[in-house]
Amino acid sequence: MKPEHVLGLVVVCGVILYYGEPIVENEVRKVVGADRELGFDGLVWAVAVNYRLDPDVLRAICRTESSWNPEAVSLDGQDIGLAGVRIGTARLFRPEWKALSDAEIKSRLLDPDTNLDLAGRVLAELTAHGLGDSPAVFHAYNIGETKYRKGIRSPFVDRYVVAFNDYSEGASNG
Prior knowledge:
Lysozyme, two-stranded antiparallel sheet, mainly alpha, 174 residues
């Protein structure tokens, strides 16, 4: 379906609503254009509600890890997709994937729904372990809970915190 077939697209409180012909998420991303983030807002909200998370934490992670690029892959090939989920983390949180090759897991992590769901699972576990506040959750998400508990800190945490504050302040001003 071409974007001109969409009769109306309205954004209300950050949620994409449409009227006219039904459109799929990929079409929404095309209609929205360069603002990739907006195309994923409904998915971010769904994951946040499902795992009882602050959606701004998920947004900050997506902005920091991938600049909202669902096809992002780190230089070492281990951090994949919107939320930069590591292949090893995916195996840990999806035990049924342990026998899969790295290439198969990478392919699955490039799916935004799967990627954000796994990020939600990780964040929910960190929160359950008492690491739900910023910046602790960002340190632990970026380097892993075990390293964080050993006193190791992420050199990139400021990027997450700035993004989180941008989203939080936008919500309070908005």
